[in-house]
Design goal:
Distance between the termini of chain A: 21 Å
Number of strands of chain B: 0
CATH class of chain B: Mainly Alpha
CATH topology of chain B: Helix Hairpins
Radius of gyration of chain A: 22 Å
Order of helices and strands of chain A: HHHEEHHHHHHHHHHHHHHHHH
Structural class of chain A: mainly alpha
Radius of gyration of chain B: 18 Å
Helix content of chain B: over 70%
Distance between the termini of chain B: 57 Å
Oligomer: heterodimer
Strand content of chain B: under 5%
Largest sheet of chain A: 2 strands, antiparallel
Chain lengths: 496, 107
């Protein structure tokens, strides 16, 4: 027993590093009062160390802490994505002018941030309903505070309040669902739940209700229709760095948890097949239900984004639409669908963070979030304008960017899985999305800037961060074989 | 008839928790005061707790249910603390905690 625990600890090093980082940031905040970016650098160091430990785990397939969590390539893939996101958002935070009025409290910011990263890393690996719920709450509670971090701003306060009310209710409903699921199957481990369901459950009605309730909690986290109402308000009110974190990292973690829970617990014990089966939980047509949610998310997200003027709000609706596209991969429930989700999330990370980053740069320099006031910005800031254009083209899904590859795989998986109507809706909504993405580009380039408005210059570090996001978006459009291989192997070794 | 009342079984607990859950959801949906909404959330969390404890008493789940119950109590406390801090800040900014009057963000 001791040996098992010690061995588990050696495989849980990334999470432990983040806990240590959190503690070091608290102490450093007390000691180094005057160092402006001290906690940011500590956080970066902690994330990089955690990233190295995650990389060292590549290829390991083990269940640790007596079945509480899993270390497998599936978790490793998502942990790498999360740590990338974390590093980028720390870099953004160092550049963000919104946070400058709060420089004495930045220690708290990074402390909560590392807590959120810890929760998300745990979400990805959890294989026990208790740990899943705990990890979700660790990530959520930190993010509630972060959303209201710029507390002198009215909009930020309102965003935090809306976020915690929606979040607390949906996680409460999810917990009720978990309690029913645990009661019906008399097990907390997701493999044991699968065995119990395969052996036959008497109360199928209760089982169905419990899965629906769990879906409420996870649907809230990934911001998919009809649980999306919080997203536009929170993204608009929260500091833009936190909006980026919520749009990317928390979505990645929640998708990883959703995939693990559904594909391990609720499908046939024979494992993932090529066509996909949902036969374990009878009574509700789960594929149709999730497909309907995905279709609604694509339609509502894209149509609502059309009439937005605030760029953060527009990106919020676009991220709802993207949640719909990603959910399409889960509907098929085949290894092909899940692989395409992983590729999509990898590319989504860079292109969405990029769009948020340029929006932040424009807010720093031009002081506006309104798309109407972007007129002429393309002439005043050629590099950032061109970068934003590429990110938005990629978000639309046009070649030669990474977004095209992402959409290609997920549409292909949907069609080969027989979900033609869903793929058709996805195609039509993609065309709709072109209008609002291109509107930003049109405003930037098709209008002359004011006479007195000078050029906007960025310092060298801002440009380096911009290129670090831009290169993967362009590169994955041409050469994506390594990601594809990694994702395929992860699905093959999806052990737990 | 009378023995069913004096010897509560699993179903009795489940009915109580379902009622509590419904009351919580109703409070969340109908109340406009943020504090009342948060009390509704507490009802929802505690109804789940009753479920967990009842299952661990009456099924072969044994102590797992009680373990989860303990963790849920801690989570509920943490969530309530954070929520009240946020609500206090909102009150300082808006001078109200009526949900209908806090609507800068919309559209």
């Amino acid at each position: 027993m001791v040996e098992n625990t010690l061995h588990s600890i050696s495989l849980y090093l990334p999470e432990i590093v983040l806990v240590v980082t959190l503690c070091v940031i608290i102490v450093a905040d007390l000691v180094l009062k005057n160092q402006k970016h001290a906690s940011a650098w500590i956080m970066l160091g902690g994330l990089a160390t955690a990233g190295i430990f995650v990389m060292l785990q590549a290829g390991t397939v083990e269940s640790i802490f007596f079945g509480m969590a899993a270390v497998d390539p599936f978790a490793t893939f998502f942990k790498v994505l999360l740590i990338f996101t974390g590093i980028f958002v720390v870099l953004f935070s160092m550049k963000n002018r919104e946070l400058e009025g709060y420089s004495s409290r930045m220690g708290e910011y990074y402390m909560l941030f590392s807590g959120m990263m810890l929760g998300m890393l745990m979400m990805v690996g959890a294989t026990n309903l208790l740990l899943m719920f705990l990890a979700l709450e660790i990530a959520s509670i930190s993010s509630y505070v972060l959303a209201g971090f710029t507390k002198r701003s009215l909009r930020s306060s309102e965003a935090a309040m809306k976020y915690i009310i929606y979040g607390a209710v949906s996680s409460g409903v999810m917990l009720y669902g978990i309690s029913l699921l645990i009661g019906v199957t008399a097990a907390t481990d997701i493999n044991a739940i699968n065995e119990a369901i395969a052996a036959g459950v008497e109360q199928t009605m209760m089982l169905n209700i419990s899965v629906l309730m769990i879906l409420v909690g996870l649907g809230f986290k990934i911001a998919v229709v009809p649980f999306h109402f919080w997203a536009p308000d929170v993204y608009e009110g929260a500091p833009i760095t936190i909006a980026a974190l919520l749009a990317v990292a928390s979505k990645i973690a929640a998708f990883a948890m959703l995939i693990r829970l559904f594909s391990v617990s609720f499908i046939d014990a024979s494992g993932l097949s090529t066509t996909g089966t949902w036969s374990s939980v009878e009574g509700i047509h789960w594929g149709l239900l999730l497909g309907g949610m995905a279709a609604l998310a694509m339609i509502v997200g894209n149509l609502a984004a059309l009439r937005q003027d605030n760029i953060k709000r527009m990106l919020a609706y676009s991220s709802i639409a993207h949640a719909g596209y990603i959910l399409m991969g889960l509907v098929i429930m085949s290894s092909e669908g899940l692989t395409s989700i992983m590729i999509y999330l990898f590319i989504y990370l860079f292109m969405n963070l990029g769009a948020f980053y340029v929006a932040m740069l424009f807010m720093n320099k031009a002081g506006t979030e309104s798309i109407e006031e972007y007129k002429g910005l393309g002439h005043r800031a050629p590099l950032a304008g061109a970068a934003l254009t590429i990110f938005l083209v990629s978000l639309t899904g046009l070649p030669p960017t990474g977004g095209f590859v992402a959409k290609l795989y997920i549409f292909g998986a949907a069609i080969s899985g027989g979900w033609i109507w869903l793929a058709a809706i996805a195609g039509i909504t993609t065309i709709i999305s072109l209008f609002y993405y291109i509107r930003v580009v049109r405003n930037m380039y098709f209008f002359k800037p004011d006479e007195d408005a000078g050029r906007i210059e960025f310092d060298i570090s801002s440009k380096v961060i911009l290129f670090a996001l831009l290169v993967p978006v362009l590169l994955t459009g041409l050469y994506f074989q390594p990601v594809l291989e990694f994702a395929r192997n992860s699905m093959l070794m999806f052990g737990f | 008839m009378s023995s069913a009342i004096f010897e509560p079984g699993l179903n009795h607990f489940l009915v109580v928790s379902a009622l509590l859950f419904s009351l919580g959801v109703m409070a969340v949906l109908s109340k406009r005061n943020v504090i009342m909404v948060l009390m509704g959330v507490e009802l929802i969390l505690n109804s789940a707790n009753i479920n967990l404890i009842a299952f661990s008493r009456f099924t072969e789940l044994s102590l797992d249910g009680q373990m989860i119950g303990l963790f849920v109590i801690i989570i509920a406390a943490a969530e309530a603390a954070v929520a009240l801090a946020i609500v206090l800040n909102v009150y300082n900014r808006f001078k109200t905690i009526n949900l209908d009057e806090i609507n800068l963000l919309k559209g």
